């Protein structure tokens, strides 16, 4: 009898342990587990020249490639990843993936191609960011690229000694800093200067209301005017229609980004569509 009972009991115990761990695990360990399995992958969206609409770079956007649930968009996991600090190793892993995939084909990229990564505020306290940026830039020595770090205007960075020295190190390496979602947050001119913001990305909510909402048009006009006075490079994001392209044309913005030009795609599709045309 024990010959039959023993395996049954073992199976029962194993099952209970598994069920209990699953319950205790919850979303945080799901993120950790997914990171171990390299399920956070880069998608790339083209950024085009504001005048000739040719590709000039890409924004890297994280996706969770879940074995059962499919492709999970960032708003479903980035907030928790930021709260728990997991966003830092996740971002590092994703930067390494882009570096390893695109570095070897550097020669095929258009000259002065740029890669933009979204970096959360807490990551700007972590010195590994400097090493990772250096490794990224070094991988493209054959045909140098520009590395852009996008920080969202929604979470402001608290000035501290470590953050300032980190920004200095990044600047020395030629890393560019972009203020993402500009117009949705509360950054001041002082803040833009303090962190030497090179690029302003006008939030898509304003671009999306062009032509339908006079106020949004005024905001776009004023943000562009401000950015130009501060000699910042401007990116308009979320461009979906010809009407929006036409509205912005007289401003001769440096860069445009949006579904009108191209949606985010996985690296091989991106390469096929945009690099090896
Ligand atoms: P974001 O950095 O402002 O990125 C632009 C978002 O707008 C992307 O959404 C992109 O797919 C979407 N988009 C681009 N063009 C259009 C358009 O024409 N129409 C519309 N409706 N949407 C457009 P996505 O990939 O879902 O990312 C959402 C946000 O999640 C990002 O906004 C960024 O704040 C965050 N995020 C994405 N990847 C990362 C990451 O690796 N790290 C961190 N910290 N945040 C990330
Ligand atoms: Mg961004
Ligand atoms: Mg944005
Ligand atoms: Mg956004």
The helix content, as a percent range, equals 40-55%
Query: Biggest β-sheet, characterized?
Result: 8 strands, mixed, barrel
Query: What does the oligomeric state look like here?
Result: single chain
Strand order of the largest sheet: 1-2-4-5-6-7-8-9
The proportion of strand residues reads 15-25%
**Over the alpha carbons, how many angstroms does the gyration radius reach?**
22 Å
Tally of contiguous helical segments: 10
In terms of structural class, how would the helical and strand content be classed? alpha/beta
Shape: globular
Keywords: c-di-GMP, Cell membrane, Hydrolase, Membrane, Transmembrane, Transmembrane helix
Organism: Rahnella woolbedingensis
GO molecular function: cyclic-guanylate-specific phosphodiesterase activity
Subcellular location: Cell membrane
Describe the structure using short key phrases:
277 residues, alpha/beta, eight-stranded mixed barrel, 10 helices, binds ligand C2E, binds magnesium ion, c-di-GMP, cyclic-guanylate-specific phosphodiesterase activity
Can you tell me about this structure?
This protein has 10 helices and 9 strands. The longest helix has 35 residues, at 2-36. Helices cover 45% and strands 20% of the residues. The chain has an 8-stranded mixed beta barrel, surrounded by 4 helices. The model has no long low-confidence stretch (mean pLDDT 93). It is an alpha/beta fold. The radius of gyration is 22 Å and the shape is globular. The structure holds ligand C2E and magnesium ion (3 copies). Ligand C2E is lined by residues 45, 61-62, 73-75, 78, 87, 91, 94, 118, 120, 150, 152, 180-181, 204, 237-240, 257-259, 264.
């Amino acid at each position: 009898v024990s010959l039959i009972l023993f395996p049954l009991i073992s199976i029962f115990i194993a099952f209970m342990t598994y069920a209990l761990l699953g319950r205790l695990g919850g979303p945080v360990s799901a993120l950790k587990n997914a990171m171990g399995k390299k399920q956070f992958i880069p998608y790339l969206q083209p950024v085009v020249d504001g005048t000739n609409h040719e590709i000039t770079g890409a924004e890297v956007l994280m996706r969770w490639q879940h074995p059962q649930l499919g492709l999970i968009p960032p708003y479903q996991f980035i907030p928790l990843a930021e709260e728990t600090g997991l966003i830092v190793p996740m971002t590092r892993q994703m930067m390494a993936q882009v570096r390893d995939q695109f570095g070897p084909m550097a020669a095929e990229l258009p000259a002065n191609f740029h890669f933009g990564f979204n970096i959360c505020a807490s990551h700007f306290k972590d010195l590994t960011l400097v090493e990772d940026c250096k490794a990224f830039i070094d991988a493209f020595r054959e045909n140098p690229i520009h590395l852009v770090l996008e920080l969202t205007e929604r979470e402001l960075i608290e000035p501290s000694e470590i953050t300032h020295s980190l920004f200095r190190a990044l600047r020395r390496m030629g890393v560019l800093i972009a203020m993402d979602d500009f117009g949705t947050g509360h950054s001041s001119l002082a803040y833009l200067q303090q962190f030497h913001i090179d690029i302003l990305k006008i939030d898509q909510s304003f671009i999306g209301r062009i032509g339908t909402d006079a106020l949004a048009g005024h905001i776009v006009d004023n943000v562009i005017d401000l950015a130009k006075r501060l000699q910042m490079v401007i990116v308009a994001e979320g461009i979906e229609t010809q009407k929006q392209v036409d509205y912005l044309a007289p401003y001769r913005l440096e860069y445009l980004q949006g579904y009108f030009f191209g949606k985010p795609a996985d690296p091989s599709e991106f390469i096929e569509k945009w690099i090896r045309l």
